[in-house]
Amino acid sequence: MRVLVTGASGFVGRGLVPYLAEQGFNVRAASRAPDPSWKDSVRIESVGQDTDWSAALNNIDAVVHLAARAHVLKEEAVDPLSEHRRVNTQGTKRLAEQCDAAGIKRFVFMSSIGVLGNNSLRAKNGRAFTESDESNPHDDYSRSKLEAEQELSRIDSLSTTIIRPPLIYGAGVPGNFQRLIGLAKKGRPFPLGGVRNKRSLIGRENLCSFVSLILRDERSIGQTYTIADEELLSTAELYLSLCKHLGSRGKVLSLPEPILRGMLQALGKGKMAERLCDTLVVDSSKARERLGWKQPKSQEDGLEEAVRGAEI
After folding, report:
1. At residue 235, what are phi and psi to the nearest 5 degrees?
2. For residues 73 and 133, is the Cβ–Cβ distance under 8 A?
3. Among 29, 49, 50, 76, which is least packed, fewest CB within 10 Å?
4. What is the model's pTM?
5. Domains in the chain, please, with CATH?
């Protein structure tokens, strides 16, 4: 099967392109900055409603669409929602329409668990998010991803599969996860010992294995999947695990959660309080029971690799 992977130079793409190649797929990597090591690549300068995908789609059987405007740590856009929609919603619609016109029917879309919300404890009364839950996007990014899903549903002739992963980790992980690794390396006191939350994560290799399975299994066509590692960790447990793999002596302080949330709110960091303290649990039973997906790497081993490959 000849597969186009968009967003190939991003964090997930850097893992998925070689993984699919090792699994026997013929992979073409689409990126703003192609890697010389890729056997088949095409440059795509920007993703939006005017992008010309014709060169990338030539002689392709399936598309895995990763390219997106993700969470921006230092937002500078005057209208962030419009920017997210331009890339994530309109860009996805444009690619899907050109796939349909080119006769490419297989389309795998990387969405986000955020389309269901950011707190499964509050939304589900302690139960995990599943594919059947009503959408409740909590920020501009997840809203634009949900709108992209809706655009895809309108193209009846496209054989689409949607994946909704939680936070993805692995070697070279960027953003807040990278920052957490940096804190763990320094062994800084971590004030979340009083927070009794649970978080679902997914290792990049585990996610790549699921994408590979989807491409081979036609039972996934027309389906949406919430997907995550089996293991659950509190934020404090995650921090201590990172410290262990780094060989640092991290300390967890048991600051009461209401006080911690109040302090962060007072500092204008309410979103950070949500990411650190909220519970977000994902149910992957549909993928495991209906498709037979098995997580190839334990979370412990995956976190160790993330620490070894951290860009800090």
Report:
1. -60, -40
2. no
3. 76
4. 0.95
5. 2-169+200-229+284-289 (3.40.50.720)
